[in-house]
Design goal:
Layout (H helix, E strand, L loop, with lengths): L1 H4 L3 H21 L6 E5 L5 H10 L8 H7 L4 E7 L9 E8 L6 H12 L18 E9 L9 H16 L5 E4 L6 H11 L7 H11 L4 H8 L9 H20 L2 E2 L2 E2 L2 H9 L2 E6 L6 H7 L3 E5 L5 H11 L6 H8 L5
Parallel strand pairs: 4-5
Antiparallel strand pairs: 1-2, 2-3, 3-4, 6-7, 8-9
């Protein structure tokens, strides 16, 4: 902010140098060797639990019961702290222990029900069935300190938690995220406004006009996608599913900023060495999820023995590692 406000050239240079120096110091002070990995449970002190709730950026915590479930059995919540900032989470990672990679937020709870055999069974951590836990799903990661932006604490936390859960549950053979796609809806509406043929085939445009009962599809989409009510209309969902999934795949896989993924969440996981694995329709039908990405979410797979190679290939060669399904879906838009 000081750099932007400063008009004097010499003063601006001095502030820029100060900014670089402070950044270098923060990178050193908050390097992994100085951080403490801590697990959060319902027995954690109330002030820390309150911060975990307040800092949640992806799926807002509704109440204390919701928070209790997120730090309870078949869930794992870990934080990084620093000795100079005790009891202050720097980055928070919520994980779910499942029997398969979920394709929706609801799928996380469904996995727990399948493992338990009942939606109401109350158990302790000691009663978790280790034989049925095959997958660790990282479904929310939140950095809490604006001053530490650009310091890759989230990457290190994911890798450390992955090692922890694999050590605790040896049957785990899949590590995945269930990630949001912020700003996709805005991008999609802009593309349809420019030219509806960027997204819809001739047949899909005709079907959309009939279902939406309007000639101007782009204008109609702007109105309909303004809230989450459309997700309850089977006909509208049917006509929008293919175009939205196709456009979302293109947005994640093809749209770039300075040769890297335009979407900041995609860029984060790809830099970590993850694989863009699966795009999920109406995975988060909440108002927030629909507002960000029309309810679509994406799984990024972490193959720990290949992460370093994938990360290097992305950073140095701008190569996006994705599954065949994602690539096929993205490139299909070129055939419209």
């Amino acid at each position: 902010e000081l750099i932007l406000k400063t008009e004097d050239a010499d003063e601006s240079i001095a502030i820029q140098q100060l900014n670089v120096t402070l950044r270098d110091l923060l990178l050193f002070w908050f390097s992994v060797g100085f951080l403490h990995l801590e697990r959060i449970t319902w027995q954690t002190s109330c002030d820390v639990l309150q911060k975990i709730s307040d800092y949640e950026a992806i799926h807002p915590i509704k109440n204390w019961l919701d928070l209790k479930q997120r730090v309870g059995p078949y869930r794992r919540c870990y934080i990084f702290t620093h000795p100079s900032m005790p009891r202050e989470p720097l980055v928070v990672l919520h994980s779910a222990l499942c029997d398969a990679i979920p394709d929706s937020v609801r799928g996380i709870e469904d996995a727990k029900v399948r493992i338990l055999g009942s939606p109401k069974t109350e158990i302790t951590f000691l009663e978790e069935d280790k034989c049925k836990i095959k997958t660790a799903v990282f479904y929310s990661i939140s950095s809490t300190q604006k001053g530490l932006q650009g310091i890759e604490l989230g990457n290190y936390l994911i890798k450390e938690v992955a090692k922890k859960v694999i050590s605790e549950f040896p049957m785990i053979n899949e590590l995945s995220t269930l990630s949001p796609i912020p700003n996709f809806k805005t991008w999609f509406l802009e593309k349809t406004k420019q030219d509806i043929r960027n997204v819809f085939t001739d047949e899909e445009r005709e079907s959309a006009r009939k279902i939406l009962n309007e000639k101007d599809i782009a204008l109609s989409l702007k109105r309909i996608l303004n809230d989450s009510l459309w997700t309850r209309d089977v006909a509208i969902c049917e006509v929008l599913k293919k175009p939205l999934l196709r456009a979302c795949a293109w947005y994640l896989y093809k749209e770039k900023r300075r040769n890297y993924a335009l979407n900041n969440v995609a860029n984060f996981h790809l830099r970590n060495g993850a694989v863009m694995w699966r795009i999920n329709w109406l995975a988060d039908p909440s108002p927030r999820g629909v507002g960000n990405s029309c309810g679509i979410m994406v799984n990024y797979r972490y193959y720990l023995d290949e992460c370093e190679k994938h990360s290097q290939n992305y950073i140095e060669n701008y190569f996006v590692n994705a599954s065949e399904n994602v690539i096929d879906l993205a490139t299909s838009i070129e055939k419209l």
